[in-house]
Amino acid sequence: MIRISSRRMCRLILSIVSFLMFGVHAAQASETNIRVTDLAERTVILSHPAKRIILGESRYLFALSILNPDHPLDNIVGMLADLQSIDPGTYQQYQQRFPEIDDIPRVGHTSADSFSVEKVLSLNADLAIFGVEGHGPGARNAQLIDQLERAGVTVLFIDFRNDPLVNTVKSMRLLGHVLGQNTRADAFVEYYQAQLDRVVKPLAIAMAKHPQHSPAVFLHSRVGLQDLCCETMARGMMAAFLDNVGGQNIAKERVPGSAGILNLEYLLTEQPDIYIATAIGAAQNLEADAANQPPYIVLGAGVSRSDAQASFQRAIKESALGSLTAVRNGHAYAIWHHFYNTPLNIAAVQVFAKWLYPQTFADLDPHATLETLYQRFQPVPLNGTYWVELDTKAGRS
């Protein structure tokens, strides 16, 4: 018979208890891990909601603000500079409400090539939020992703660009999980889906009862950015909005990728029923020397309807697109380009529906939808013009 002293027995018991407690804590830690599959189909695991975040595109502030509208910048330790340079109107709104936005370190400019891994690692980030594709690092930047994850920075991919009407909901739910804001994410998703149904369901009913001609649409992207006529979107981005409302995108059969060029001769031959331009100009462009400014269409934060209309008139005049039948017949419209990269895109979908099928959607009010999105889910007020119809009478005066 083996005898064990009381002292050794106590040590043994303590060891066993410690071992068991370690196992319990390990199991609890495992159970509390946040585990999701991102939109690059990668398994992403966090031990706790992210507290130090890198934004691969600072335009994702729209999404983060939905989850934390009172303090959207609190956990952001670094971001690309795209919002300030590409959408200065919105940046100025944030700057006025949250002056500390200027103090957030920039980890790059407006491209993946400018993204600084070294800068990110110096900021002790625990999560980097990237788009599957876009201005910042994407899913194809395997080496960069590997560098970050080896250094302990978890990478999460979201998407408002490639398949926006499917992936906006998925992206917001992912962000809700990793940031510990599921309730806010669910509230947004509920509103978003209800507003999408206001397009999808009436359109399906109308098509079933009275099959109608799908309008041929030319989607003119980033008007004024280059002299060459005319950049367009064929797949994803705003082309996906067009697909969702049953529009016939005339670029789809001519452009093999997501974006490309259709020349003016082709447009004059095909003569789309509807012309939609995307506007990359901002209020700040109006403050500069107009004579030296490209013919941007100006829309977005801080832009009046009259200024938007004047910029649209100028862009049409300088591009020679006034000869399009759609323009002459009063079926020419412009919309804020950056809808394609934010979860506020549902307002743009409703606008497209109303432009293509005005009778079916006579009672739909996209402006009210956008107002609600800002009132419920954004930290800054809706203040500006985000779409406009070309005033053909003004053009002939």
UniProtKB/TrEMBL annotation:
InterPro entries, per database record: ABC_Transporter_SBP (IPR050902), ABC_transptr_periplasmic_BD (IPR002491)
SUPFAM superfamilies to which the protein is assigned, alphabetical: Helical backbone' metal receptor (SSF53807)
UniProtKB keywords: Signal
Residue ranges of every copy of the Fe/B12 periplasmic-binding domain listed in the record: 52-364
Signal peptide positions on this chain: 1-29
Keyword Signal: yes
A Pfam family hit: Peripla_BP_2
The name this protein goes by in its record: Fe/B12 periplasmic-binding domain-containing protein
Species this protein is from: BD1-7 clade bacterium
